[in-house]
Write a structure and sequence with these properties.
The chain has 280 residues and is α/β, with parallel strands linked by helices. The chain has helices at 11-22, 46-53, 68-74, 78-98, 116-130, 153-164, 182-194, 215-226, 262-279, and strands spanning 2-6, 26-30, 57-60, 102-107, 134-138, 141-142, 166-168, 176-177, 180-181, 205-207, 213-214, 230-232. The two termini are 35 Å apart. The relative contact order is 0.14.
């Protein structure tokens, strides 16, 4: 099968690309990081249309998004909202024109109407429903990240620990999240794409570990693995999700189950970061 990955250079997109290549699938990459011509916001984009028309299946992963630090700084800005609406407008129009099967990457935050990021994802879900695509909801997928401005909490904490031998947190750490390694996420996406014609589209597909961890626990695991790193919680509260918690649908477990534990996943990211620093 020929897969098009919109957002192939992102944290999840890059891992998915490697996973699909390893599974002997054909991959078409598409990301603004690769070329300014691969900007999903461009109108009448013949390159995007060509990529969609010759693909068998599309993963719509591209979005202007980052970790909590990035969202706290940017999600309430005009540019953030405009970027995401613009890229969805162009991509969904071409998916409709060529009637391609696709998966849209949403978020477990899509019902949190205090969050512009969540609202943008909710709009993407409505587009997807109209086109009979499949919505999946990611729960804090983590992996090796190259854009540290958009780094999520695990990558952020690891870099802080390695660079300064301490982890200065943005909050008190009492908020809880579910985390999933990018390789597990990639496997889930591949399975769902292969089952696309057989699975009900009206079910919710939550791609997560189904285990809750506090942010403080994340810092503790990293500290232990790196050898007693000092942890400094902040007095600030969670202003991104505002301690709001959803419970994931377990329907996806009929098709896929997570395999990588949080401790194993964090160890893997530490090793990748150390290897990248050695190579540089």
């Amino acid at each position: 099968m020929k897969y098009l990955i919109l957002g192939s250079e992102g944290q999840i997109g890059h891992a998915l690309k490697n996973y699909l290549v390893g599974a002997k699938e054909e991959v078409i990459e598409y990301d603004i990081v690769r070329s300014s011509w691969e900007d999903l916001r461009l109108s009448h984009n013949t390159l995007l249309e060509d990529c969609i028309s010759k693909s068998d299946f599309v993963f719509f992963l591209a979005f202007d998004v980052g970790g909590s630090r990035y969202l706290k700084k940017y999600q309430h800005t005009f540019e953030f909202i405009h970027n995401n609406i613009a890229l969805m407008k162009e991509a969904f129009a071409l998916l409709e024109k060529h009637d391609k099967p696709f998966i849209f990457a949403s978020s477990q935050m899509s019902n949190m109407d205090h969050s512009p990021y969540g609202l943008c994802k909710a709009i993407g879900e409505k587009y997807t429903e109209c086109l009979n695509g499949l919505v999946v909801k990611f729960w804090n997928v983590y992996g090796y990240e190259r854009d540290l401005e958009k780094a999520h909490v695990i990558t952020d904490f690891i870099h802080k620990a390695i660079n300064s031998s301490e982890i200065k947190m943005l909050t008190d750490g009492h908020e809880t999240r579910q985390f999933l390694h990018a390789v597990d996420c990639s496997e889930a996406l591949h399975v769902l794409s292969r089952e696309f014609d057989n699975i009900p589209k009206n079910e919710e597909y939550h791609i997560t570990s189904f285990e809750w961890f506090s942010i403080l626990k994340i810092a503790d695991i990293i500290s232990t693995q790196l050898g007693g790193i000092d942890i400094h919680p902040s007095a600030d509260k969670d202003t991104v999700q505002k301690y709001q918690k959803n419970e994931p649908s377990e329907h996806i477990l009929n098709y896929w189950k997570p395999q990588i534990t949080l401790e194993e996943g964090i160890k893997d990211i530490i090793e990748q970061i150390r290897n990248a620093r050695t190579e540089n």
